[in-house]
Amino acid sequence: MTDPPAPRSSLLKLLDWSDRDKCLLLSVLLWGYMFFICVWHQVTVHLTEFGRNYVSSQGTAMLNSVVLINLLGWALLLAWGGWLRHENRHSRIYPNVFLSFFSVGFVLLGWVFGLYSPMTGMVLMGSPLVGFILFGFTRVAWNFAFTVCVVLLLAWLSVSGYVEHAIYFARDPVSKQHLSYYWIASTVAFMVPFITSVITLVALLLGRWVYREKQIRDQALHDPLTGLSNRRELFAQLAHELARGRRSGQSLTLCVMDLDHFKRINDSHGHGVGDQVLVQVSEILRACLRETDLIGRIGGEEFVLALPETGAAGAATVLERCRETIASSPVPLESGDFLTVTASFGAVLWLPGHPANHALTDTQLLSRADEALYLAKGAGRNRVMFWSQEEEGAAAFP
């Protein structure tokens, strides 16, 4: 098994940041966004035909105030978050203040430009989605509910004539009589950062879900120490290979491998060295076998190998190579010494065309391989032995 690929983009780590650091990053971005609106406003009012024809003097003064409030507010939140980070402290109040100020600041901005503008609607719908991803549902839901209530109140006041709608404009820049492409382009420019943020964060969230799902699946199907298939995954793969062998008529060799005197290794050197031995042996098996062969650790020091489309002679060669490599690859110890490890192999050849073998199950095959392993242990260990019909019932071998 190979580990699931780590997330490629460091932005994925944003989802694991603390609320303090998320607020700090967003404060920087929102201050920059407000500065962009400030620059756009000054250029529009003083240098464009649109400013002379569509922007009211009252709206100019109001937007100046709203932008100033936002710039100062985000600067203060940035300073607060920077201080918390410098002191390595966290505050439950800081994220709540951040979210509340975001709601107030953008409601004011929406009121100046018009509550029914595409920009206001996009912010009203996109911001909660970003908030839910970054800060969780409950905290953002309260601020979203508050914002919606304020927007509805301002809309009612606007319709009732108590407050002026879209105070920034002297006349509507997007109507049948007047259509300003400058304002349309400006609206798109205002919306792009939010659309980009929403798409990016949703993509990050989906990527994280896929990554974690793969991790969970791998952990459920593989041995966490060696990375080999566990019993569940190994037997699922073995059942597939047996079914394929019955269709194609190809043989398969199943082998149970057991490390010799492994309990003695754990008792004498500790479980840490025992784990080191298991990892090294698993790496040797991977190197000695083909990619199409199956390897699994089914418990303790016991491994199962399945060699599809492999007869007795070929399997004997492969298993002997595994045995020799394990025996000739001592495990280095912290003391500078080396620990020699050996393994015993019990194998059984499955021939699907043979009447006695065709209906055998994976459990029955494993039982026969176990009998051969017991023979190998009784014959002195560190050897490969195959099950044969004459040796059936050899489990009682001393």
Q: Overview of this structure, please?
A:
The structure is a single chain. The chain is α+β, with helices and mostly antiparallel strands. Helix content is 62%, strand content 9%. It contains twelve helices and seven strands. Strands 2-3-1-6-7 form a five-stranded mixed β-sheet, with helices on both faces. A two-stranded antiparallel ribbon has the order 4-5. The two termini are 37 Å apart.
- What is the first-to-last residue Cα distance? 37 Å
Tally of extended strands?
Answer: 7
Globular, elongated, flat, extended or rod-shaped: what is the shape?
Answer: elongated
Largest sheet: 5 strands, mixed
Give the helix/strand class. Answer: alpha+beta
Return Rg in Å: 35 Å
User: Hey, roughly how much beta strand do the residues contain?
Assistant: 5-15%
What is the chains' assembly state? single chain
Unreliable parts:
1-8, 391-398
Helix/strand order, N-terminal first: HHHHHHHHEHHEEHEEEHE
Number of helices: 12
Helix content: 55-70%
Question: What is shown here, in short?
Answer:
The chain has 398 residues and is of the alpha+beta class. The chain has helices at residues 19-47, 49-54, 57-86, 93-113, 118-135, 137-160, 181-221, 231-248, 262-269, 271-288, 312-327, 362-378; strands at residues 252-259, 294-299, 302-308, 331-332, 338-339, 343-350, 384-386. 62% of the residues lie in helices and 9% in strands.
